[in-house]
Amino acid sequence: MINGKHLTVVMPAYNAELTLRKTYDEIPHDIVDDIILTDDASQDRTAEVSRKLNIRTTIHSENKGYGGNQKTCYQEALNIGSDIVIMLHPDYQYTPKLITAMASAIAYGVFDVMIGSRILGNKALKGGMPLYKYVSNRFLTTAENLLIQQKLSEYHSGYRAFSAEVLESIPLLENSDDFVFDNEMLLQIMYFGFGVGEVSCPAKYFEEASSIGLSRSVIYGLGVLSTAVKYFLSKRGSKRYAIFNPDGKKLTPRGNL
Fold first, then answer.
1. Nearest to residue 90, comparing CAs of 37, 129, 54, 30?
2. Correct CATH for 7-130+151-211 of 3.90.550.10, 1.10.260.40, 3.30.540.10, 2.60.40.1180
């Protein structure tokens, strides 16, 4: 716990057998109350390794996609009464050592959401981020900052921390089950007025770390721009979209199972 807040780490997993233990070992277990892993129909021994580590493990019988995996993770975290939820990839791309800093900012009411930014600190390329990913990251981030009038260093990191209030409030179930889920969720958070902070996070790129290829990156990029345009139009009342509808489908809140 931090400041009396129940802290849960959730790990949306797909074929993470080779990196899960290394990720788990660096989690600050002295402050983390629970760890949840959702195995999205992996083709390896991810679930077996997870259970050997005594992680709360849920297995999808069929692949639901990166966004669909996260929806399960967050609902499970709310089901056990979590106050703060950290989304950590089990592929060891992001260091678990930043969990304390990210959770503390939420536990003490500084921010509602924290993002681990690969761009702050200028270490993305040094960590092995492919040049085309870096360039597209900077382009998409600039475009989004202009469209939604924010100043984040990046919108595309998969390392995030949320208060339970955020997860209960936004229409999360209206989002895509694909990779653009991350971006839709972040724009929902800002649309509904929650505070977002960032911490510099070095990221590692290596063979076992999950990463989408060029063609999926293009699809993701188009989805990101589309989401930003929807935000822009919704804020101005020009059009209403389900992902920005306060009455849209949400996760089941704590204590309402």
1. 37
2. 3.90.550.10
Domain chopping of the chain, boundaries: 7-130+151-211
Query: What does the CA dihedral 248, 183, 95, 169 come to, rounded to 10 degrees?
Result: -20
**15: number of Cβ within 10 Å:** 19
Flag whether pLDDT at 112 surpasses 80.
yes
Count CB atoms within 10 A of the CB of residue 109: 10
Closest-CA residue to 12 (of 94, 123, 105, 97) = 94
Between helices 181-191 and 65-79, what is the axis angle to 10°? 50
- Report the predicted TM-score, pTM, of the whole model to 2 decimal places: 0.91
Q: What is the pLDDT of residues 29-65, one digit of tens each?
A: 999 999 999 999 999 999 999 999 999 999 999 999 9
Q: Which residues contact 157 (CB under 8 A, 6 or more apart)?
A: 94, 115, 116, 117, 118, 201, 203
Q: In what order do the strands lie in the sheet with 34-39?
A: 56-59, 34-39, 7-13, 84-87, 160-163, 113-117, 196-200
Where do we find the tokens 């997870």? Answer: 50
Report the SS3 class of residue 174: helix
Q: Rounded to whole angstroms, how far apart are CA atoms 42 and 209?
A: 15
- pLDDT tens digit sequence for 199-223: 998 877 655 555 566 677 788 889 9
Is residue 81 pLDDT above 90, yes or no? yes
CA–CA gap between residue 104 and residue 179 (Å, rounded): 27
239 touches 128 (CB < 8 A): no
